């Protein structure tokens, strides 16, 4: 049972940019809700999506799979996906422990993510991890 109920929000700080914020615990109790929010992200046509995990306190394997799905969707559609998770954020641990951090571009804060996405995307460089995501689910 989660001690900090998860919450989700979407904002578009400027045209072509979507910020999907995740706060609290994302676990079995709210993974369906997290998937519904992720579907809203998939339906967006923006060039850059930032998933802000800086207020996340726990991420289940279900949510890690949702993130992998978003990564694949963005790659398939030529869009940029950047995660926000500082070195000390609770969200960073499951990404590093599972080895998934190498498949994502991770910024330490929202301003850096927005800047990184704009710089990398504008320069023609692809924002990809070290390779394709693992084919097997977590």
UniProtKB/TrEMBL annotation:
Pfam families registered for this protein in UniProt: STAS
Annotated STAS domain residues: 7-117
Descriptive protein name: STAS domain-containing protein
CDD domains given in the database record: STAS_anti-anti-sigma_factors
Species per Swiss-Prot/TrEMBL record: Streptomyces globisporus
